[in-house]
Amino acid sequence: IVALAINLALAESPNITGTWNMGLEGDHVIPVALVLKQDGHTLTGTIALPTQNAGSRVEVKLSGDIADGAFKLSGTVEGAKEPTTLAISGKLLDDGSMEGTFEMPGHGHGSMPWTAERLKERK
Predict the structure, then answer these.
(1) Mean per-residue pLDDT of the chain
(2) Strand 42-50 and strand 29-39: pairing?
(3) Rounded mean pLDDT of 10-39?
(4) How far is residue 27's CA from residue 32's CA, in Å, rounded to a whole number?
(5) 53: exposed, middle or buried (C-beta count within 10 Å: 0-12, 13-18, 19+)?
(6) What count of Cα atoms within 13 Å lies in the side-chain half-sphere of residue 79?
């Protein structure tokens, strides 16, 4: 009976796999692409962050976990003078969107709130 309850709880857990249009809220909203893949409680993906060069982006690999619609991800921005670790925490909202905080220490932004909407898959 316990195994059945655990399986039902896992089956009802929302899946956030997909491509998300994320808006980082700093001095202005910065649009970024967040691509996630959920496998049980394991979460992986990428985020495409803008660089100092206009129009240029750097793709950062992310890994973390999810439980009860809340998740934490981290990744390392390579290619800079010193690698920088970033952290993303968030949760799935009842309307299917997500919100949370983005942190990248040493870049003067502190903790930035963000929201995201899942892009519809093309058929």
Answers:
(1) 85
(2) antiparallel
(3) 87
(4) 15
(5) exposed
(6) 9
Q: Are 119 and 19 in contact (CB under 8 A)?
A: yes
Task: Quote the tokens at residue 14.
Answer: 């929302």
The predicted structure's pLDDT at residue 82: 74
With the C-alpha atoms ordered 28, 19, 103, 84, is the resulting torsion angle positive or negative? negative
pLDDT in tens, 35-94: 999 999 999 999 998 877 777 888 999 999 999 889 999 999 876 677 789 999 999 999
Pick from 20, 45, 50, 15: nearest CA to 33: 20
Token pair of 75 as six digits: 């990744």
Single-letter residue type at 93: L
Q: Which two tokens stand for residue 120?
A: 């519809």
